[in-house]
Specification:
Layout lengths: L3 E5 L28 H13 L4 E5 L9 H10 L3 E5 L7 H10 L2 E5 L6 H5 L6 H12 L5 E6 L7 H11 L3 E6 L16 H12 L8 E3 L12 H6 L13 E4 L5 E2 L17
Parallel strand pairs: 1-2, 1-8, 2-3, 3-4, 4-5, 5-6, 6-7
Antiparallel strand pairs: 8-9
Helix pairs in contact: 1-2, 5-6, 6-7
Bound molecules: iron/sulfur cluster.
Length: 274
């Protein structure tokens, strides 16, 4: 099996980002029903037996699962490295300290400043996310931060990076939002290649950002079938994506997929991956 797996614990989320890449926005059956605690524990133990070394617990919003800590602890007990990807809105100081004590790394996304309400579908500003990043730094467990860029927030690109760095992000990953999930219904939000290059130039000019900001260069997933119009409109992803070899996904209902963006089920066979 691939050394890293993403576990999509739930399709539920307290945000409604119009760019959310969750595959269930394209195929409702991939969003549930959710597995119970015992079923996930079985998957965790099977994965550990088959050589998986690390798992990222994600969603949707994984902190909406009441058994998140139980699952994280079972994965740690099985010898897996564990991380959590969260929108940060439900992270209390107590939970942050609990993750730190157990060595569970955290990442979040900063979706906008003035545009945060539109980018998240919540109508409110970025304060919860910035507070979570800041609180994480204060407890000595700084978070990694993703900056997804689309037409509504691209004008904020440099300010987003500066704000995340000032709040105490450990590292940043900025990239154009991908033509997947809910974005399939919003091609007008997608950046052009030129807009993305301009955003990168603005980000590179942020003084404290040097060496701390990486760029994700994919506009769409090359592992799945895409309409020809997509290939013509945006730069093709670089060849050699490690999906299915370097990493894989166990979806909400327990089905394997090669990556977070693929909708096709994947039947893992002995000798694949790793
Ligand atoms: S992108 Fe993340 S925070 Fe936004 S709706 Fe999807 S799972 Fe929730």
């Amino acid at each position: 099996m691939p050394p890293k797996l993403y576990f999509e614990l739930t399709a539920r989320c307290n945000y409604e980002c119009p760019f959310c890449y969750g595959v269930w926005h394209e195929r409702a059956e991939l969003g549930g029903p959710e597995l119970g605690t015992g079923e996930w524990v079985g998957i965790i133990e099977e994965c550990a037996r088959r050589g998986v070394r690390s798992v990222q617990l994600t969603g949707g919003e994984p902190l909406l699962r009441e058994d998140l800590d139980v699952l994280a602890d079972r994965a740690l007990a099985a010898g897996l490295e564990v991380s959590v990807y969260t929108n940060g809105s439900l992270l209390t100081e107590e939970r942050l300290r609990g993750f730190k004590e157990r060595g569970i790394r955290l990442s979040t996304s900063l979706q906008g400043l003035g545009s945060h309400g539109v980018m998240t579908g919540t109508g409110f500003g970025p304060w919860k996310t910035l507070e979570a990043i800041e609180r994480a730094r204060e407890v000595g467990w700084p978070m990694g931060v993703g900056i997804p860029l689309a037409r509504p927030n691209v004008g904020d690109a440099a300010d987003l990076v500066a704000a995340a760095l000032l709040a105490g992000a450990s590292a940043l990953l900025a990239g154009p939002v991908m033509f997947e999930g809910r974005m399939r219904k919003r091609p007008e939000w997608m950046l052009s290649a030129e807009e993305w290059e301009a955003a990168k130039a603005a980000i590179r000019a942020v003084p404290a950002g040097e060496g701390r900001v990486a760029f994700a260069e994919e506009f769409f997933c090359g592992c799945r079938e895409q309409p020809e119009e997509v290939w013509m409109r945006w730069p093709a992803p670089a060849a050699g994506c490690p999906a299915g070899r370097g990493f894989g996904v166990v979806g909400v209902g327990g089905r394997f997929r090669r990556c977070l963006h693929t909708v096709e089920e994947w039947e893992w066979r002995e000798g694949e991956g790793g």
